Each structure stands twice: as C-alpha cells, then as structure tokens.
Amino acid sequence: MVEPKVQGNISPVGENKPRIDAREKVTGAAVYADDIQFGNGLLHARIKRSPHPHALIKKIDVTKARALPGVKAVVTGEDFPGYIGLYLQDRYIFCRDRVRYVGDPVAGVAASSVEIAEQALDLIEVEYELLPPVLDPEFGAGAEAPLLHPDLGKYVVANFIFPQAGTNISNHFKIRKGDVDGAWEQCAAVVERKYRIPHIQHVPIETHVAIAKVEVTGEITLWGSSQSPFAQRNLIAQSMGISQSKMRVIAPFVGGGFGCKAGVSMEALAVAIATKVKGHPVKLVLTREEEFYTAFVRQGLVAYFKIGCDAQGRLLAMENKFYWDGGAYTEYGVNVTRASGYSSSGPYEVPNIKTDSCCVYTNHPVGGPMRGFGMPEMHAGLEQCIDELALQIKMDAVDFRRLNCLKTGSSLVTGSRMHPTGLPQCIEKAADAIGWGRKAPASAPNKRRGKGLALMWKAPAMPPNAGSSAWVELAEDGSLNVGVGGQDLGQGVFTVAAQMAAAALGVPYESVRVAIPVDTRYSPYEWQTVASRLTWSMGNAIVNAAKDARRQILETVSAAWEEPIENLDIVNGVVISFKSEKEVPLKNLVIYGLPKPDGQGWRGGPIVGRGNFMPTYVTGLDPETGQGERAVVHYTTGAQAVELEVDLETGRIDILRGVSAFDVGKAINPELVKAQMEGGFVQGMSSALFESLQLKGGVLQNPSFVDYRIATSTDAPKDLEAFIVEVPQDDGPWGARGIGEHSMVPTIPAIANAIYDAVGIRLDGPPFTAEKVYLAMLDAGIVK
Amino acid sequence: MTLDTHPTLPEFEYIRPATLAEASDFLARHAGEARPFLGGTDVFVRMRDGFLTPRYLVDVKRLDGMNDLRFDPQAGLTIGAAVNMNRVAAAPEVQAHYPLLAEACRTVASYQLRTRATIVGNICNASPAGDTIGACLLFDGVLHIQGVDGPRLEPLKSFFLGPGKTTLKPGDIVTAIQFPLPPQGCQGTYIKLGRNKLSDLSIVGVTALGCPDAACASGYRFRVALTSVAPVPLVAGAVETCLAENPITPDAIQEAARLAAEASTPIDDVRGSARYRKQMVGKLSARALNAVWRKLG
Fold this sequence. Notes:
Chain A is α+β, with helices and mostly antiparallel strands.
C-alpha cells in the first residue's frame, strides 16, 4: 500500500474541492476538439459506408469522385493493408474484401468543403455481392452460421484471449470450479433463466471528432476527442507501419465518452485519409446519425443462468452461458467477454461454478467498451435469479444476499480470496435507506408500488500490466504543475489528480494545476482512461511522482540546515523542521535551490518528480478452468435499491427513489464520488427503462434521439441518495478504488426486482418500456 | 439500398413576400415546388431527413395578422398562424377560456422548440400525432385560409385527408385558426402517452372535453379526440352518442372508452405496437373521461 505522508488537517484528500475545470466549462472557455482552428489548409473528410450488413466488395470505382473539383483525395481499403485492434487485430481501417455491418467504412474522401466531400461520396460506385448475415449470437456460435472472419486463426491476439478458428467465436472464456453436475442434487431450489440484453449506445453529448495531419516527413499529429491518446498512438502507428515516435496525439477536453472514445475507432480513418494529403489537416466529425450507426455500441447479450442453493439459502452451484453479440469486429469486445467470465459468480461465494462466456461475431454494429464493461448486462440477469431463488426457498432477498455475498477472505470464482471489502456494509446502507421490508401505499388506486435491491462487483478489466506514469514540477511561486496522461471525461479526474498531488507533496490544492491538454509528446504515459482505473492507478503514479519531488526538496533543505531529513516536512507549501522550528517556503527554492553560506555556491536545482505505477501482481488464468492466483487487481463492490410505481393502466414506471452504496476504499473527493453514483444510477435507469438500438435485419431503425430515448432530468427520481463506504484497498492511493462505472451496474436488476415486487411480472430483458410491462401484465391476467 | 449517415439540409431558395396576396400567388405559380413555412420546427427536420425537397420555402410568418392573438367575448378566440405555442400557453385569454389548448401546447417537444412551433404549423403538417390537434378539433376550430381566389373559412374537422395530407390547394396559406366561444361550463384534458416524460412524440394522445348540455338525455355532452392511432386525428363520434344517451356512470364511461378503442385503427411502428396502442386508447379514454367528469362534478 502506498502511504503518502499525512499532512494533518490541511490535506485536501477527502475534501469536496471544487472542480478544477468548472470555470472553463461553465463559461464556455474550455476548448474541445471541434473548437480548434486550423486555418485555410483544413480539409474535410467524409466516409462512404456500407448499406449492407454482410457483403463481398466486388468493385469500388472512385474515378468520378476523384475528378470532382475540390476533392483532394479518395482512399479505399486497397491503400491500407494493416490490421488494427486492441486485444484482437481483426479490423482493417477501410474494408478491403467484405463489409460486415451497416456503416462499415469502404472509402474516404478529403475535400475543401463538407459539401464537396458529401457530393463525392455519391460519386463513389461500389459493387457488392450480398451474403447472408448473422443476426443472433447464439445462432452465430453454431456450426450452420456463415463464417464472418475466415482468417480468425491468423489474427494477432493478446495471450489471454482465445479465438476459435473456423467458427464465429472470437473468445471463449471458461470457468470450471468444483463439481457443478454433482451439486444440483444437493440443491433445495434451482432457478433457470434466459435473458436478452439489447445493444445500446453511449450517446455522449459530443460526437466523435478527429483531425489528423501528416507532415511530408511522415510525422503524424492527431487531435481528437479521446479517452485513449496513448493507445491510439500505439495502435495507429502499428497499423500504419510507422514508429510510435512519429505519431503524436493531442487530446483536448472531451464532451463525454462512457467508453466509446476508448481504443481506436474513427480516428484511424482520419489519419489514413491524411496520409494522402500531406501538410493538410483533415477533419472528420461524426454526425449524430453516424454516431448511432458506427460508434462502438454496448454489445448485446443472450445469457443463460442456472443457479441453485440449499434449504438454508446457501448458494451451491451456478452454470452460466453467455453469448455476446460482439458485432462485426470484436477487437475490444473480446475482453468484455473475458471480464464477464471471471466475474460470472456475481458478488457471491459459490463453491461449484461452470461458465462459458463466448464472444460471437455477428453482422451488427461493433461492440466495444461501455461504462460497466459487461457487468450491467451480466448482473441484469444474475441479480434477478438471486431474487427468484430467495423467493423459492421463502427467504428474504436481502437476507439471502447477506448470507451469500462476498466477505473479506471469501473464496472467489477464480480460486483466490477476496480482499477486504465493505459489501456487507453497502447492503445494510442500501436496505436501510430504502426502508427494506416496509411497504408504502401506492400514490393512486391505479398504481402499484415496489422495492428492489441488487448487488454488484466489478474489477478494472485491462491487460495485467496496464501502466500509469506522472510527473510533477514546481514553478518560482511554489505552484505545482502535474503531468498526467489520463483524460477528464467529466468524471473529475483532473480535480482528484490535483488533490492527490497536493496532499502527497504538501502544497495547497489551490496552487496545483494539471498540465493539459494531454499530449503524447509531453504528457507522461497512461494506458487508457477506462476501467475506472485512473484514481487508483494514475493516482499511485502521481503519489510516487510527488514523493520523488518531495525527496529532492527535503534533501536540499536537509543539507542546507544540516538537519536529518526525518525532522522535516512540507506543510502548506512550506518546508518546516519539527526540531529546529525553521521554515522556508517552496517558492524560489524549487527553481533556484538554496545558497550555501558565505558565497560558497548553491545546492539543489529545479525540482521535477517522476513516478509510475503498474500492477505486477496480476497472474494469468488457466485457459480450461479460469482458475489462478490473482485474476485482477481488485474489485469494487456495492448495492443499489429502488422504490418505484407501476401504472396498471399504461405499464409506465415511475422511479420514486434510488439509493446507491459503494465501497470506494477512500473517497478522495466525496462530492465527485456521489456525483458518479447519481449519474450512474440515472444512466442505468435510462438503460433499464428506455434504451435499445432497434436492429432489424442488421439495419438500425432508430438512429436519432427522436426514437432512441434517453432519460431526462424529469425522468430521474427526485430522491437520489448516495452512501460512501470506505474499506481501504491495499494497492490504492489512500486506499482508493474506482467508482465511475460501478454505479450503473446493479440498476437494471434493482429496477426489475422492484417491478416484480410491485406487480409480479418478470421480463426477459430491458428496456422495461411501458408497452412491454403493460402487455406482460395483460398476458399474465394482472390487468384486463 | 443506400445509407445516409450525413443528412443535411438541401439547398432551397428562401422567399419572403411582402403581402399575403403575393405569397399566395407565388405558391400557386410554383405548385409542387414551393412550400409555406412558419416556425420551421417540422419542415426543416423533414427536409434534412430527405422527406421534403421544396425548391422554395416561403416565409409567411411576418405577414399581416399572422402574429395576432385576439379574444372576443362574442366571436371567441383567433390565433394567428405564426403565434408560437409558448405565447398561446401563456395568454391569459387562453388560460381563462380555453385552458385545454394551453395544456396541449405545453406537451409539445421542449420549451425551446415551443418558442418557434405554432399550432397552425402543427395542423398543416397533418401529423396523426399532433399534440394540439385534438384540442383544436374539440373546440370546433375553423381555419382562415388565404387562397388565390381570396380568403375562405374551412372547418378543421374536414381538413385532414391522411398522414401529411390536407385539403389545402396550391396557393393556400392558413392565416389563423378561430374558435367559437367554448361550451358553457366545459372542462377538458389532454393525456399524452410518450415513452419518457419529456419531449417525446406521442404513442397515443387522448383529448376529452365535456360540458353540461340539456339537449342530451344524460345532461352532458362529452367528446373525445384521438391522435397517433389512425391515419388522421380522429373524433370518436360513438363516444359522444354513448355518453349523451346513457346516464353518466362508471360503466357508461367504460363503454364509451371501449367505443373509442374500437374507433381507432393504429399501426405498428418504432414507437409502439398496434396492440398496445389500441389498449391504451381504451385505458386513456376512460382516464380522460373520468378526469373531465370529476372536474364537471
């Protein structure tokens, strides 16, 4: 555990410091990618996309498009033979031989205006030979399904992903623990269920933006709305066959990401086009429609659960099958499959468990990371089964969870032991706040009221060696500049970075600034802003950098004062000695050092601290059993509870109250932690009640906000409560763990359980629209 | 098969005539390629999505009388075609005499859009889902139309021919909608069922208006208008007959609601199924009629 020196009552850690970027964002001064001005040389890119879910490209004729005045370049897959992808390189930048989803890029145009670029698209002639599409993951996993990636066996792949060559299964993750087959007969109750979770979109308020410029020397600069500037540097350089040192990514403020701006997606298109118009910046902005059709989606899921317990309610066995609808390319989605596999017990101790989690290629939009990374989808079914099992053995659903939930030292699904966890406290907080066990009367005769609760766990899903680094430097006035490579997506990580740096060095929060925008040329390396890992991983790097700077400063002062370093501390920007009671402010000393007596020269010099962090303790898992020493760095756990009303006449659901309780280890900024809990609840609620990409024959039916509904502030409950539980994490700064994604993981099943409590129906998957709820009540004879 | 991921507003010519006659003449001369517009909240969206491709857009919102909102104790309410919905909803005369109309306006889209959107525009688009149309039908709205042959009046009830189709002819410009005085002691309500609470298009819309009426056996006259459940906004005549002839009881209201559902002919679309819509016409008609009955009591 990193133990930064405690700074007494002036430490900003644990304080509700105001957001460091609030003024810029509120006044409109904050610069986003689309705001950057590039002058007259700017060209505009547009992408020709496949209208078919699955087809062979027979011929692309771009001659007419090239001839259009104002068109500067037209590119196709022929120009870019390299594969690209994060965990599995299964994607070309532009399609070469076939298209695999509606929206797959087949050609790109750079022109002097958006209008000309669009006209040029119409002049590009593409001849297709239509192929039968795969539209269901369960079918896609079978032997009869057409093969979407015949070269799957040849793709470059991370060593913890297991593609099945000759099938559409791009990753098959297995858990084999205990004796599942033998356990069923000891079970007093068994629940078997199937759920279908639809694709949803991230819908950030800012659509994807990328501007790429290639110099005549071949050096590339990319400005983008990005969660992952360093991953983009690496992957795009690899795909283009250039050195990473020739690729620079600059990432200004981001207008929301939720995962869809992680890894590489449309940025590679802009870079590829720019290589053909050297010296010109080329700008590609996705329209909202394009965002709906082509940005990463939260992949669909068909999930089977079989769960059993004994007469006392103790969970004995689980058998889970997950068919992930990974879409046309599963370069990122394969790891969602893995994460849901090694978390497939849910936050419970289950002695016998068998899981098969398969990522399946389909001709649907490309699945990728989204807030929760498989956990909301997986928990949606699992946490309903837990309620049903409790009901079967006539046990209270919360008591059932109290009995079975993970506690410190519990045996995990992957074979190791649970680290210290506050999950039991989270259950108590959520149950208590929602008034569990007390039924309130409905607000009207046509309404029924219900309560539901669900638990969650989630680990940062990433390669075992995802690293962070940071630097700190001080200016003449003693102010601290913190260099980071992580991105603020609105979650407030720059604020938290400043708080941690201030606390670890011993300077006031107000004197810290974060060196942004993130620029891979000047900023320290950060793997990606994903997995809710920054406060924890980047935080560790920042603490190490601050400690490094602190050591340099104290060594200088110690030598000057001829006092042992142990006597010294930095408090509120001043170096003090507990013994001699001397003090010297950091300003000036951190640049010019301190003079030796009698004109003998100087000591010290400009202070630059550096630090890094990489988990070195995550081990591999056995490919056949999914068992291993330490599958992940740690798990954040939590609980949510809701109270809602169902309108018997319309099926409409009103969420009256939402309660969240999560064990974050340590809240560096409690208000920001609570904001994540509230925002996650509302996004989870939105996915539970409204959101779904309606795909028909592979074609999206609702590519706009008119028919893709998301929750507004009026749909959110007036009463949202958030409770912070703090059981420190051994490898986190001040004991902190992530919270960004976790807050939307248990929302769907909490709502589903409350609907059941209210009216006694269960649906096979979200969204629980008024129509679905009403027709289910009608078919069950609950209403007529 | 094409995929348009870059919908853009097509090129068009913007025409702003000085007088109604000039506007009407221009529209008549360019039949099929010119279109009048008011707030533009629907026209521009449909043009961007490629459903409308007029060569000329004729801006009629600043012409004489288009921005007037007048109430006369004898003649009733006249709302100029260009009066926006926020203004209608906030007008004291509307709130005092036609509160149902204000209520309906407030359910349209968002506050920001309602500073542009107009009732007449809503009507001329002839969307089966128009939120204000039910109230306009039940208040017996009459359209003032400027045509090439001069002004004329046309009752709203015979105006709609199909989705997006009306009786308007080339050169016609609707300049206002006029409502007679509302029936003495009337009460109304509009129930809009959207997928979420704010700014959605309706899956089903039910407008109900009721008033004491000695000419009816029951002593009351109730009318119900239905939107989003037929090719055109619908006034369910059977409801009126049922509740005029039978004493107003919970059973009679249920029966009237059943007749409303029977009158509807909804379809399946991305917003909802025909089966659900038909169910909802019944449920929401009952709810609306009961609400109005309570208000009358």
